[in-house]
Amino acid sequence: MKLEDKLFQDRYIVDEEHPHLKIKDPAACLNCEAKQCTQICPSEVYTWEEDHIDVAYGDCLECGTCRVACAEFNNIEWRYPRGGFGVMFKFG
Amino acid sequence: MAAIEKYDLIVVGAGPAGSAAALVAARAGLKVIIFERGEFPGSKNMFGGVLFGHEINELIPNYWETAPVERALIEERYFLVSGNSATTIAMRTKDFAEPPYNGFSVLRARFDKWFADQAVEAGALLVCETLVESLIMDHGKCVGVKTGRADGDVYADCVIVAEGANSLLTRDAGIHAEWKTNEVGVGVKELIKMPKDVLENRFNLTGQEGVSMRILGLTKGMTGGVFLYTNKETVSLGFVAMIEDLAARGFKPNDLMEEIKSNPMIAPFIEGGSTVEYTAHMVPEQGYKSVPRLVHDGLLIAGDAAMISNLLTGEGANLAVTTGRLAGEAVVAAKAAGDYSALGLYSYQNALDASYVMKDLKQFKGFAGYLHGNPDLMDLYPQLANEFLKGLLTADGTPRGAKAKALLAEVKKKKSLFGIAKDLWRGWRVIK
Ligand SMILES: Cc1cc2nc3c(=O)[nH]c(=O)nc-3n(C[C@H](O)[C@H](O)[C@H](O)COP(=O)(O)OP(=O)(O)OC[C@H]3O[C@@H](n4cnc5c(N)ncnc54)[C@H](O)[C@@H]3O)c2cc1C
Ligand code: SF4
Ligand code: SF4
Question: Distance from the CA of A32 to the center of ligand 2, in angstroms?
């Protein structure tokens, strides 16, 4: 089963005005060999696009893994979405 | 929300820890407010999961009569998988199908909502869709919280932080450093729906009975494991893995999930089912070694935010109920004494230390390190067990005595008996 089909089952209220995930210094990612964020995220929010990381924060499941995994560069600004926004588990 | 209004207690987070804390404080007549960032309590929460009922039953006797539980778990099945084979060790008892039950599978979006409602019925005020952005400190004492709402500063004599494992408030307050990659793991789960009769036949269940499975051998030696729980009409299938291990092995969590689902030993359990939800959550892995200071002036930390969870037994939610309750009781005592300083609140730490929670946590403190240092346990051992037993059971004309010898020689090629003995001895040492 494809990831996008799984994420399609999940319910989200995306906060279009306030992304809750941000790369602090996009240039630092150029020096990051492992690019853990592109591998470790359960919903594959991060993708490497030629020279920068793209962050599809609307798919985030709010687990915090990416932030902890980017330990060497500590380059992910991670906040919880504003109250009432983000993923909404129907079952949990 | 009027900024001047003051409470006895602010609780951050309406998970099991926060709702338990709010419940006991509200029952004692304290003015309590709970902030929850989700649309409703549970809407951000997932777990395996089994809720062991002992703790909740103490707070809400016969909770199963009103709580949205799924199935009473009557069987614990250890499933050691490798290749085309699996060895099962299972314990089933009908006694767990009777009150007071041992534990139920639950779905958190339903259960947490119900539990928070119990705190509300006891008099607590629940405010959802509200993120607590920071703690308000005054001369080292916590005096309230800053919420994401307009005029969102709220004050209280005491704050209980029950924000879960992904604990940003306590990190930002300098109570703990950012979690290291070996201190926390991530759990990923699919909820797979199938007709009730199919599920019951598949797992040999009747009525409200359910099964919990711990599956070893499918996580490539990572510290963690695969779990499967039966709910009423769904199966919860997922895995937990330490972030350091996941990063080092380079798996994408969803790819690993797909590999698990298509394993020939697992696929029959979910065949014909359809995935209705895909979720992920952080989980504490190190236990005792990660626990930060839990008592501060005007501030207590409970539940997963306190890193109190037990990797070996798979307990977490029930421990959160206990720590939340003890924190709530400490605030009640502090109010009676009129002292909300760390000293006045210290009965929380004393109660924790005296309870099974801390005793277990201390006892198992080396367990995560042990698993982490012995990837064979999660990977090679299931394989050895399957090969040995399969060989022994194969009827091929070889005398069984000679066969056992030959099989043991095969085992020894992969791991010396001394190595096995050493692993077992070390394992025994860390939990004894
Ligand atoms: C994959 C997986 C499987 C598990 N399996 C089991 C199991 O089978 N049995 C078991 O007993 N335990 C299990 N656990 C552990 C269990 O889920 C936790 O121990 C338990 O949920 C901890 O409860 P808590 O109340 O401390 O935190 P949580 O349940 O995480 O609740 C924290 C609450 O705080 C809210 N919150 C967080 N920050 C803020 C903020 N700033 N402002 C407002 N609200 C906030 C959250 O939305 C959430 O509702 C599992 C965990 C995982 C990840
Ligand atoms: S892991 Fe961190 S530093 Fe590396 S690419 Fe991702 S965000 Fe950038
Ligand atoms: S928090 Fe979890 S789901 Fe969200 S981007 Fe990070 S790793 Fe992915």
Answer: 6
Structural domain boundaries, residue A39: 3-88
Burial of B376 (0-12, 13-18, 19+ CB in 10 A): middle
> b/e per residue, B168-185, with b = 16+ CB within 10 A?
bbbbebebbeebebbbbb
CATH code of the region B6-68+107-176+292-354 = 3.50.50.60
Taking chain B (432 residues) in runs of 10, the rounded mean pLDDT of each run is 77 98 98 98 97 97 98 97 95 96 98 98 98 97 96 96 98 97 97 98 97 94 93 98 94 96 97 98 92 98 95 90 98 98 98 95 86 84 92 90 90 88 82 72
B93 close to B74: Cβ distance less than 8 angstroms: yes
Q: What is the model's pTM?
A: 0.96
Q: In this complex, do A74 and B178 lie within 8 Å of one another by their Cβ atoms?
A: yes
Ligand 2 lined by A41 (C-beta under 6 Å): no
Instruction: Match 């982490």 to its residue by tokens.
Output: B372
> Which residues on adjacent β-strands are paired with residue A77?
A22
From the list A30, A24, A23, A3, the residue with the least C-alpha distance to B188 is A3
Q: Determine the Cα–Cα distance for residues A74 and B233; give it in Å rounded to an integer.
A: 42
B233–chain A Cβ distance below 8 A for any pair:
no
Q: Does domain B184-284 have CATH number 2.60.40.10?
A: no
For residue A85 and ligand 2, the question of a CB distance below 6 A is answered with: no
Residue identifier of the C-alpha nearest atom 29 of ligand 1: B15
Q: Assign residue A67 the CATH number of its domain.
A: 3.30.70.20
The C-alpha atoms of residue B186 and residue B389 are separated, in whole angstroms, by 33
pLDDT by residue (tens digit) across B174-209?
Answer: 999 999 999 999 999 999 999 999 999 999 999 999
What digits encode the pLDDT tens for the residues B291-311? 999 999 999 999 999 999 887
Q: What distance in Å separates residue B234's CA from the closest CA in chain A?
A: 10
Number of domains in chain A: 1
User: Using CA atoms, how far apart are residues B68 and B326, in angstroms rounded to an integer?
Assistant: 24
